[in-house]
Amino acid sequence: MKSENKLIGAGLLTAVTASLCCITPVLALIAGTSGIASTFSWIEPFRPYLIGLTILVLGFAWYQKLKPKKEIDCECETEEKPKFIQSKNFLGIVTVFAFVMLAFPYYSGVFYTNAEKQAIVVDKPNIKRTEFKIIGMTCASCEEHVNHEVDKIIGIVNSNASYENGNAIVEFDKTKTNETEIEKAINSTGYTVTDKSDK
User: Fold this and answer.
1) 74 in a domain, yes or no?
2) What tens digit of pLDDT does each residue of 116-146 get?
3) pTM of the full structure
4) Which residues contact 58 (CB under 8 A, 6 or more apart)?
5) Which ranges of the chain would DSSP assign to H, the alpha helix?
6) SS3 23
7) How confident is the model at residue 137, as a pLDDT?
8) How far apart are the C-alpha atoms of 87 and 70, rounded to whole Å?
């Protein structure tokens, strides 16, 4: 039974670790410490392996739980009910939790409230479009975090961060804000602007 508990614990640990890089930005947003958002971004390259390990460990735990027990012809041994932590119900709960954690990057955007944008009436010549090259973003949760911080700035018309491209393309009213303010907002998330250019 101890080996089953270890398997369940290992399955949980690998599932949480696989999504840690995407959970951290949301936790940082909730805690109000957005600068720690990129702390676990180094885990992202290992995510596929951690997902595979989670599936293997939980699959083996289910195999151990469901395989037929060997019959022992002994009148002295009584069948005792397993503790909840050793039950199929507990393993089922752990499995569902693990898959919810593994899927976190795909639904993490629900944790970022849309910033109330004021209707901005600007002259077209006042709108500037700049691309900010950013390092440290690893998933959709990182994109949401960057967009959320940039959208707080007065004068932002549109912000579109992409972890795949390693950038954010921001349209803004240059009479109300500037590239330095936008770069500060991006850097405050824990990700780093390495370069910027007009688009």
Assistant:
1) no
2) 555 555 567 889 999 999 998 888 778 888 9
3) 0.58
4) 7, 8, 11, 91, 94, 95, 98
5) 2-31, 47-66, 88-102, 104-107, 140-151, 179-187
6) helix
7) 85
8) 18
Residues in the chain: 199
Domain total in the chain = 2
* Domain extent for 141: 112-198
Q: Is residue 77 part of a domain?
A: no
Is the domain of 174 the same as that of 149? yes
Query: What pLDDT score was predicted for residue 11?
Result: 74
Q: Which of 195, 194, 191 is nearest to 142 (CA)?
A: 191
pLDDT digit string, tens, across residues 159-180: 999 989 999 999 999 899 999 9
Same domain, 42 and 131: no
Half-sphere exposure of 42 (CA within 13 A, CB side): 2
Residue 23: which of 107, 136, 104, 134 has the closest Cα? Answer: 104
Cβ-in-10-Å burial (0-12, 13-18, 19+) of 150 comes to: buried
pLDDT beyond 60 at 187: yes
The tokens of 88 are what? 């199929």
Same structural domain for residues 152 and 170? yes
Residue 99's pLDDT is 83
* Strand 167-173 to 192-198 pairing: unpaired
